[in-house]
Amino acid sequence: MSGRIRNRQWAAKVVEAEEAAGLIGPGENVGMSGFTGAGYPKEVPGALAKRVAVAHEHGEPMKVGLWTGASTAPELDGALAEVEGIDLRLPYQSDPVSRAKINEGRLDYTDIHLSHVAQRVWQGIYGDLDVAVVEVSGITEDGRLIPSSSVGNNKTWLEQADRVIVEVNSWQSEHLEGMHDVYYGTALPPHRRPIPITHPADRIGVPHLDCPLEKVIAVVETESPDRNGAFTPPDAISEQIAGHVLDFLELEVAAGRLPRELLPIQSGVGNVANAVLAGLENGPFHGLTAYTEVIQDGMLQLIESGRMEMASATAFSLSPTAVERFNRDAAAFRDKIVLRPQEISNHPEVVRRLGCLAMNGIVEADLYGNINSTHLMGSRIQNGIGGSGDFARNAYVSIFVTPSQAKGGDVSTIVPMVSHVDHTEHDVDVIVTEQGLADLRGLSPKQRAERVIEHCAHPDFRPALRDYFERSQRSAFGLHTPHLLDESLSWHQRYVRTGSMR
Amino acid sequence: MSGRIRNRQWAAKVVEAEEAAGLIGPGENVGMSGFTGAGYPKEVPGALAKRVAVAHEHGEPMKVGLWTGASTAPELDGALAEVEGIDLRLPYQSDPVSRAKINEGRLDYTDIHLSHVAQRVWQGIYGDLDVAVVEVSGITEDGRLIPSSSVGNNKTWLEQADRVIVEVNSWQSEHLEGMHDVYYGTALPPHRRPIPITHPADRIGVPHLDCPLEKVIAVVETESPDRNGAFTPPDAISEQIAGHVLDFLELEVAAGRLPRELLPIQSGVGNVANAVLAGLENGPFHGLTAYTEVIQDGMLQLIESGRMEMASATAFSLSPTAVERFNRDAAAFRDKIVLRPQEISNHPEVVRRLGCLAMNGIVEADLYGNINSTHLMGSRIQNGIGGSGDFARNAYVSIFVTPSQAKGGDVSTIVPMVSHVDHTEHDVDVIVTEQGLADLRGLSPKQRAERVIEHCAHPDFRPALRDYFERSQRSAFGLHTPHLLDESLSWHQRYVRTGSMR
């Protein structure tokens, strides 16, 4: 019995990863932990992938339905996709191998709002959940599970699965205990009650996950780091974007449309998001809060510096140095961070009530304010919508950020018509590039187009966008949202044909 | 002092409509009552339109910003659009004259989620609200306003406007008093609290609207019917669509995914919606409820027959004969109907909590489950998104209905790629045409395409859709959502060129 498994009955179930993986059958649906590279099981997926490879070598079909919180890591998504061991993947992925398989048409992927997953699984939409494979950071004396660096859908997996495999990862900080808030009050309609959160700090649940011992078919001990990348300092483009966002927030406060301490921040993951968080460090704002999916380095820093009072999320996504700082000062962070199940961290009800300021990255935006977050050239999946829809639709202000160009200037991220829509014109308030910021609130489509072209597009692409917009206003089928349908996707066609939109 | 104005101070403010309209200045923003042709002011808008026409004859510019609940009627939208008296129109319209002006590029229109309007106006996004023009059905002894046949945004207009004009319409039933539930508990973040509704019947507010007398600049007495069209019995196509929807609901109950009394129904307006409601009359379901925007004839009938126990909405939209029945049996309807402000009838928090079954009509759907609710051929606005986004995104099951063809068979409503997106692939559960029903829940894009083609498309268009889908899978840029960008909008292009997609 290791120090992390403080209950004898649970300790008695410890086996090797290979044995545990052997308990998962072909065709089964498997719900695994993991959100943004944090808290995913480290060993069972790899052992399962080996089993799949062996089965395939013997000509035996073997695939599983793979459900997670969100993205995981090469040891999970990558390993299972590599051996073609996944039948249907949901609700989000960002793995290069998975992505390639999906785009080759060899792996079915259903890309859904992260807040929808739990209710859909309860509803039985994806079939039965056969096995849960959940990483925890420990097991208490009375047999409750101490969650790991992400909560994700773990509560749902443990409740819904017929059989449960638990990985206890002693690499995870012991200081995580007490930081989680697992709410057991959700239900299917007509039995739903208000989610009683009115501030990001509110704790409405319990710090542990419950799982009946009789469902547990294996416990595996691991000691492996999360997929923690090194922190990249913001580049010039990201800093310019962040600067525009910060100017906008200051103007909103000055206009009386936002309180001085802002409203709870939701921030997507990535360079630009980190740059905005870094900018907040030096800006005029104090008493900040976050109600978001993921706590990145930038947010940890805001807490350390005292700028941010409270951050609610469902997962960490920290660099190795930030993890070190977290472990060193865990006590100081304990009352400033709450990790919740993703059905709560992303819940439309709470996002709307708190009035989140949602900031998310995109693939491309069009003249009229439609956003593509997921597809390259209309067909090729990048990652998925993740939580951006949960937040953008219900946010107080929904902000979308992107450099104005991609692929070394061959791609304009501002196009006549997006090749796929993830956030409609009705849900997009503000678009920001390094060129500037377009506040689209309250504008008609044509008014939006002018702002998007002049404030957001790269100067190289502005003349062509203006030309398209002007000609559209002369000969479109209607002048509410003027488009020339034989040209609207021509920039993408040109890219597919020549490798450049230019 | 007429019988409808039971307070002397309010009665002392009665003037003619022309005088009241004279109190509205050029360039002002005017918030008018009205939702789906119910409860809009009947006389001041026409008088205002006459003023605008005279001003324009004298070469004086005169336009107002026109904000409403949703659609109104020829006497309001039509009259003001006809004289080009509208600057910016929001949040929804369905008037032929307005629509023509918008599509000619002569009228700016911003088409927004109906649940977003109140918070946006409070936020100040559209500028100051100068004048409210609100129809009521009476004024109480103590000077409170008895709402009319719609509530819409009236609470917000009365709170936010600097000056208020009230129309008291004695045509409206006196029995409306007591039927409304005006919730004064909403706020801007960070001051929001849970909306305490857990059942469509819950009353959480007060039956009257408040308005400080000192803001009231005019009271106008009218006696005019709402825009109540005659009820058209369902046609064969609508009945077939309704049949598929009812079969689906029965299967969901049988599978244990819906309770026997279903969940609160939200139903868009129109023939197909009415056919579904008519179908429920003879189906196996009892104890039904509705949490919706509008109470149409079909819903009134369900209440009369005892099938429906409770309907919550923000407006009526009844035929003249249904209005008669309503007035005759008003007492019987009083405890079965609640009319709420649209910020509550469409509130994402409540829609999600109650688990609404959302049924909305569309313009077109594509292979991958994206929905266009608003635009013809990508550019020409039809009406607007209305509340369909408020409900579809947060619903328990979001169902979209349409005949498989339009324009006498020249248009397929199932197309390779929609020309505008109002509901993304992530928000669309079920698509229904007279051909059949495609349950898209849990499917990958390519799996969805197969169902949409085989279950929903008209047989005349199926071969071309299959051909597009097959060729896309051979040569698209990615095989997650295979598209051929040079063909994806070609059906719309053909229609614009030749008047037919065939």
UniProtKB/TrEMBL annotation, chains A, B:
Pfam families noted in UniProt: AcetylCoA_hyd_C, AcetylCoA_hydro
UniProt cross-references to InterPro entries, sorted A to Z: AcetylCoA_hyd_C, AcetylCoA_hyd_C_sf, ActCoA_hydro, ActCoA_hydro_N, NagB/RpiA_transferase-like, Succinate_CoA_transferase
UniProt keyword Hydrolase, yes or no: yes
Keyword Thylakoid: no
Keyword terms of this UniProt record: Hydrolase
Gene Ontology molecular functions: hydrolase activity
Residues of the Acetyl-CoA hydrolase/transferase N-terminal domain: 7-170
Domain Acetyl-CoA hydrolase/transferase C-terminal stretches: 334-468
Gene3D superfamilies assigned: 4-hydroxybutyrate coenzyme like domains, Acetyl-CoA hydrolase/transferase C-terminal domain, Glutaconate Coenzyme A-transferase
Family designation: Belongs to the acetyl-CoA hydrolase/transferase family.
NCBIfam families associated with the record: YgfH_subfam (TIGR03458)
Protein name per UniProt: Acetyl-CoA hydrolase/transferase family protein
Species in which this protein is naturally found: Saccharopolyspora ipomoeae
